[in-house]
Amino acid sequence: MAAKSTNSESVLFDIFLYAFMISVGIVTVYPFLNVLAISFNQAMDTVRGGIYLWPRIFTLDNYKEIFIYNNLIVAFKNSVLRTVLGTLLGVFSAAMVAYVLSRKDFIARKQISFVFVLTLYFSGGIIPVYMLIRDLHLMNTFWVYILPGLVNAWNIFVIRSYIDGLPISLQESAKIDGANDLAIFFRIILPLCKPVLATIALFIAVGQWNSWFDTFLYNSNSDDLTTLQYELMKILANTTAGASSADMARSGNPELTTRVSPESIRASITIVATLPILVVYPFLQKYFVQGLTLGAVKS
């Protein structure tokens, strides 16, 4: 009887667990599918409501309205370039600083770590940062997207925690074999830190891809330095105000005012902005999960 009772409890628990996980999956996936359906639905029909998992009147006008904007191609190239360069340089810089701070023989280790900790709690504010960027002559340059965020304290501490969990005997053995600090960093530390580096790379890439406020502050007057998120934000603002980008470019054509609505444009912009990250994430998922669990097992 006890065995049957245990089996019944196990079956009930499995049913509850599967039902719970399916519910979580539906709650997680449904909003994205709903936005996708709205982005492909006819704008005026969307205003009626009732769009859930698939479009009621299929159309590509919402995406045509976005991609007809003149600066979008240049903005897309700049966003891709800043994401790639910002991610590579950001990960490499954070890894180098983290390796130095992880060394027990580094004399100023505690003092420099304390300075980095302070940056996590205190910030100079927008105006001092703007004045600093101006004095460094980074205004209206591409490097304003890369250099200010090159070294991030949180990324450094995450990577350092991972390095601290690696066996110190690996570095000691390499030193006995005659390897210097650079050789140890490139040949031992970096290969073993792939999970945490992939995690930090994903965080930096998402931040770079989604960033638009720095473009607004520093490069809003340079059309050749605009970014995708900034241009999409302007399209959304114009559409919400009652005039789409195509309306502004072709004023006098009343037919265009019925092609889009703020809700349909907002959904289309969300898909356009999210799709590149969704494409990249599956390739980093394995390392991302390992990176999030760093420190769970220490040798």
From TrEMBL:
**Pfam families reported for this sequence:** BPD_transp_1 (PF00528)
What region holds the ABC transmembrane type-1 domain?
A: 76-284
Q: Where in the cell is it found?
A: Cell membrane
* Topology of this chain in the membrane: Multi-pass membrane protein
Q: Which UniProt keywords apply?
A: Cell membrane, Membrane, Transmembrane, Transmembrane helix, Transport
Bilayer-crossing residues are 12-33, 80-101, 113-133, 145-163, 184-206, 265-284
The lineage's top-level taxon is Bacteria
Q: What is its main location?
A: membrane
- Keyword Transmembrane among record annotations: yes
Query: To which protein family does this belong?
Result: Belongs to the binding-protein-dependent transport system permease family.
Name of this protein:
Sugar ABC transporter permease
From which source organism is this entry?
Gordoniibacillus kamchatkensis
The organism's taxonomic lineage, starting at the top? Bacteria, Bacillati, Bacillota, Bacilli, Bacillales
